[in-house]
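ABC transporter domain-containing protein: structure, please.
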Amino acid sequence: MTTNPIIEFKHVSKSFEDNGQIILKDINFELEAGKFYTLLGASGSGKSTILNIIAGLTDATTGDIYLDTERINDVPINQRDVHTVFQNYALLPHKNVFDNIAFPLKIRKVDKAQIEKRVLEALKMVRLTGFENRRIQKLSGGQRQRVAIARAIVNQPKVVLLDEPLSALDLKLRTEMQYELRALQQKLGITFVFVTHDQEEALAMSDWIFIINDGEIVQSATPVDIYDEPINRFVANFIGESNIVTGIMIADYLVEFNGKKFESVDGGMRKNEPVEVVIRPEDLRLTLPDEGKLIVKVQTQLFRGVHYEIIAVDELGQEWMIHSTRRAIVGEVIGLDFEPEDIHIMRLNETEEEFDARIEEYVDEEIVEAGLINAIEEENIKD
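Here you go.
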């Protein structure tokens, strides 16, 4: 990803000797400075363990961890240039807002005038100017969260680690804080590593997402690529809703499922290779039966506020979920239309490395072919 990563994991594993439980399995990644990264996974997947290893709160069983090219496996917590925002904020209840934010600066024996200047700057950044003397017990959940973030950035660390810091907030405040955190990270230019199990949160805030499952990185990519190009059934199901059916890749750009052949935009697979086909619910459009690529019968319908969630079944018994702003009628037969780019093809049991290699090779082939075509056209023009 970069020649000089701010954080690097090399073959990092974590297990417990007493019961043999394996938490992390050969984790490798590089994080670029100044980006917003998210570790996304279900509870127990290992994402918080990765965060704790970076912070020095737990040790890796094997492998090496680097911070700004320095190996930090044996570097004490207080000597690592990172700061963690915990889920419960870990604020000091007997100190006011100013003293909570100033705490890491006082530990480092920063000059008193400099402490006051930096604390006031941090308060301004998190929109808490004037709260310096407020007691922690008098703050709302959102205000406490801002204090914790201010304390994390006041030291100007190389990396800020955030362990599900928004999980205790109500939905409206949580959404507001997503915008604020993202804007703050971009303003400061500090690397943020954010842990969450909330898919929408990860998609909204991140430059890059790591999907963690059972101690392994299943896929890592931009939010758009994670959503549009899930590597396997787990990712497709974990990131949003998906319709997944089995199919056959007849040839490049042509896939067969539900007994019909459809144009697609995917290629680079073997002829007649078994695959899984993903179509997102929002990419299915309601139409008349004779105008649809699929014909289905509406089974149920729920109003979700911004759209209707419709469950319908085709003539083969395959269930389809549709998200539409148009209302359907339970029991009616309708058509479903979609475009070739709405069809995503997944290879069965493909690893991320195989996925990347296939896409890279496929793209290279397209570039070569395009170059040959241009050359031929130029020769034709000359002739």
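Notes: The chain has three domains: 7-228, 243-347, 352-383.
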